[in-house]
Amino acid sequence: MKPKIILAAMILSGSTQLMAAPAPVSEAASSQTSVEKRLASLEKLMQTRNFLQVELQQQLNLLQDEVSQIRGVTEEQSYKLEKVLQRQRELYQEIENRVSQAYTQPAVAPATDYTQANDAQTYSTDLSENEAYERAVALIMKDKRYDQAIPEFQTFLTTYPNSVYVSNAHYWLGQLLTIKNTPVKAIEHFKVVVNEFPNSNKRPDAMLKLGTLLQEQGFAENAQKILSDLINQYPSTTAAKLATNRLSK
């Protein structure tokens, strides 16, 4: 009996070994599947990150385009504003020169050279102030309503006592009052320009008109002093040349 038992035990032992042998192959397959899943997960994460980077770059490009457009609009508006301001300065100069030439006597023509050289000093950044001054000048230039222009300039001086146009307003009042044949009141306004605004671009013309009116009123000595000062202080202006001709006569 014992040999048979031993033989059976050997057969069973071999059979068990044969059944246990495939186990390492199954474990390797399972491990490989796990690695593939992890790789697939990593690839998916990389694709998502790349997609987000592309999207962020596109948004950044859009923002840059918008900033460029805004900068361009700002530069364009600044350029247009500067052109408007420049045109206003030119308009004021043109109006004043034409009014002086059209409504004053030849002997009291404006000192054009000096006025043009100093026009930048007589421009305000206050739009309401500019509109008020332009409206007063327009009554002379466009409407030829000289009587209405006088109170308009007087109101301007009351409303904007510190305006850069104060000397100009006094000058135009002197001009209008001269036309209205009220030389005494005209002299008062020209004196304001001459005595209180040494840097005014209207001062040479005001000195010429003041000297002329004083001479006509019989104040020859005062007139001669004003005209001589004009010639000495503004020798290259048209007003100085006219003053020289008046003194020689």
TrEMBL record:
Range of residues in the leader sequence: 1-20
SUPFAM superfamilies for this protein: TPR-like
A Pfam family reported for this protein in Swiss-Prot or TrEMBL: TPR_6
One GO-annotated biological process of the protein: protein trimerization
Record-annotated YbgF trimerisation domain positions: 34-107
Coiled coil (residue ranges): 42-105
Location in or out of the cell: Periplasm
Record's keyword terms, sorted: Cell cycle, Cell division, Coiled coil, Periplasm, Signal
GO cellular component annotations of the record: outer membrane-bounded periplasmic space
Family to which the UniProt record says this protein belongs: Belongs to the CpoB family.
Entry-linked HAMAP family: CpoB (MF_02066)
Function: Mediates coordination of peptidoglycan synthesis and outer membrane constriction during cell division.
Name listed for the protein in its UniProt record: Cell division coordinator CpoB
Species assigned in the record: Pseudoalteromonas aliena
Lineage: Bacteria, Pseudomonadati, Pseudomonadota, Gammaproteobacteria, Alteromonadales
Gene field: cpoB
